[in-house]
Specification:
By secondary structure, this protein is mainly beta. It is 3% helix and 37% strand. The radius of gyration is 18 Å and the shape is globular.
């Protein structure tokens, strides 16, 4: 039986993966979406234990409601470099709450007072430190690897490939930047036959060409498509497109905070 994150199934007015487009010309009007994602039930990371099972990562989920402060160094004496709200309001909609998650980079001190995490902000790859008491850290066995140019996406569970599929990727004038990202939200569209397919994952990264797109911040994403004949081609504005069958399968498996390595 699948276990689901305790967030409301709420109606919102815009799609957050806003560096995406439904076709090669004018993007489809922003659809209503719902937010949901499967939850992991693995044990939390022991304090001071930096060892990871092969092929896995650590995900830090905010353990407090309200503001979560992030610092440039593991020192609370400095002013925070970023402040995030938990739960996040998807597209600013108070009825669409999404848990705040980070991908863990390191636990830098033996006392386990701090966790270094990747942040869903510009520039891509930005990191910061959160207090260990503000987050719950869990092991995550899933990861996604995308090979641009080869039009390939693989999903791993530990060292096992559980999906190997063809994707559509960005056009030359709006390339998807390579790097390490993580999934920040999962949106379920009300129109599975629309341009975004039935589901879309928002990523922690952003287009380096488009500062805004379709009313959003140029956020990267992975989503379905109503044009499966374009898989294996360069057609998007930065997002990764999958078949609707594949994205539906992933939506029932992957939690938030899954690392996504894009190899440009």
């Amino acid at each position: 039986m699948k276990r689901w994150v305790g967030v409301a199934l709420a109606t919102v007015m815009a799609l957050g993966v806003a560096a995406c487009s439904g076709d090669d010309s004018t993007p489809e009007a922003a659809p209503e979406v719902t937010t949901t994602a499967p939850a992991l039930t693995l044990p939390p990371k022991p304090c001071g234990d930096d060892e990871l099972p092969a092929g896995t990562s650590w995900t830090a989920t905010a353990a407090i409601e309200g503001e979560v402060q992030v610092f440039d160094t593991p020192q609370e004496t400095l002013s925070p470099s970023h402040t995030f709200t938990n739960p996040r309001l998807f597209n600013g909609d108070p009825n669409a709450k999404v848990p705040l998650v980070f991908l863990v980079k390191d636990t830098p001190d033996d006392a386990c007072d701090w966790v270094e995490v990747y942040l869903p902000v510009r520039p891509n790859g930005t990191t910061g430190y959160v207090k260990r008491s503000d987050v719950t850290v869990q092991n995550n066995p899933y990861r996604i690897e995308i090979s641009l140019g080869a039009f390939n996406l693989k999903v791993f569970k530990s060292d096992e490939v559980i999906m190997d599929t063809t994707i559509a990727e960005a056009s030359e004038n709006t390339p998807t930047p390579g790097g390490l990202y993580f999934t920040t939200e999962l949106v379920k569209t009300p129109n599975p036959g629309g341009a975004y397919g039935p589901y879309a994952y928002g990523l922690s990264g952003f287009s380096e060409v488009l500062q805004t797109f379709n009313g959003g911040p140029g956020q990267l994403g992975i989503h379905g498509t109503n044009q499966p004949q374009l898989l294996g081609q360069k057609v998007s504005h930065g997002c990764i497109r999958m078949s609707n069958e594949d994205i539906t399968e992933l939506a029932g498996i992957l939690p938030l905070g899954v690392p996504v390595q894009i190899n440009a």
